[in-house]
Amino acid sequence: METIITSADFNRELISGLSEESRHAVMNIILRGQALAEDPRRLAQEIRPLIGLNQRQAQANVTYRERVYQRFIERGLSPSKAAEKSDAAALRYAGKQHRYRAETIVNTEMAFAYNRGAHMSVGQAIANGYMGKCEMVWTTAGTNRVCSRCMELRGRVVGTTEDSGVTIPPLHPRCRCTIIYQEIAPAKALRPKPQITIVNYEDVAVIRSQKEFLMFANQMKPVIEQYTGRQSKWNGRIILKDRGDAISGKCWDCSIVLNPNAPDHAVIHELVHSCSISYYNVMMFLNNKFEEELSVEYLSQELAILKNVPVVKSDYNPGVELIREFKAMLGVEKTDIEFASELIKQPLGERWDWLWEQISDKINPGTSLELGQQLMEKLEKIRQWVI
Ligand SMILES: [Zn+2]
Ligand SMILES: [Zn+2]
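Above: inputs. Below: predicted complex with zinc ion.
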């Protein structure tokens, strides 16, 4: 596939003539405006003080002033009167040129971010198995204002999602073209495959002595302290008591209560609580129950995998799954255990805020606004998740 011109090339040229500082200010205004879906005309007004006229516009202004001057002379005005009038006309002309340049920068920058973002989202959806390989079809705005270069590309397949270096719009300043992604192969999977294997409690239940439980708990305690960043408040006692479906629990005196056949995963879960909710009180627990339980269970699952003990199904699984999906969509390089660890290190009541921050950190020139929207929807589901 031939590369005509890369967007980045002309982009650099477009805001040329600006100091590095103004260029940053312009980019910031545009990015913020995009995130807040502001009216491009308002953004153009905002960036106007930061930009001047480009070379061509300045030259055009000089020419305009000269022509106007000549016309006034032809009409019999004195040279001084003609100069005064043509100066005023050139100034009004400059105002219009200035507004036009500001709008060009805003429109083109937005088109640039939009198209690059859309391209990245599609790539991500394909990588996650939600979409198959696509053909990239060039589409124009479809009016008679389309330039001849874009008209030539109209409806043409310019590449596939597997090619690198395919030209995407904008092709030139004020280009309003976009790419349509047409699937030509089936998606790898309708849903991402479950990331971890979860077993039923009954299938791994073994009755153990208090001594055996204590040994495992004492062995896990330092590991859990490391991943939660807090010292465990566990008082060292384990009470064996059959509580049926509840399997395990933690008393406010920080003893751990376990069914005699509780799995290791349950011991880990209660120990993680001893490094989290045990720093607070009952009111804090009631007000943030699912924030606590989901962040504790997410890390507990990861620690069970780390220690090679079976991950056991619990009522919290669908909620934890949402966090896993959120993390996968975020596309961060951190592993799940690192992500779960950072999450639980946040104070209780602020863990979902930390997830919000992950979204805003993600919104940068290369991100599509759709991805931001999807992340926000996922987080809203996490926040409202209850049993
Ligand atoms: Zn175009
Ligand atoms: Zn719990």
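The longest strand covers residues 134-139.
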